[in-house]
Amino acid sequence: VQLQASGGGLVQPGGFLRLSCEASGMVFNQNDFAWYRQAPGKQRELVAQISNNGITNYSDSAKGRFTISRDNAKAMGYLQMNNLRSEDTGVYYCNLPNGRWRNVWGQGTQVTVSS
Fold this sequence. Notes:
Helix content: under 10%
Radius of gyration: 13 Å
Oligomer: single chain
């Protein structure tokens, strides 16, 4: 099982990014999907989650600014991040929570929000 995150970068406050995650080695549509963030010096935290049937859940900081989505046919997950803030800075990881692959983490993608 592999999870390959991409799409991070350096962006100014108020800007936007779209993260992508390519999943392989399992039946993607049978799994919940999530994005986590690890800020410098902090523990990894849940940003957004989407169930295998499309129900979404967001952290308080992500609500209204981020949108999680998935394309089961392509085994891809996405995170559209708008109105980015400096506190959104960190390494973003995709994950398949709540199932047998919950301990699989890819290399993550770095998001830096700075002027």
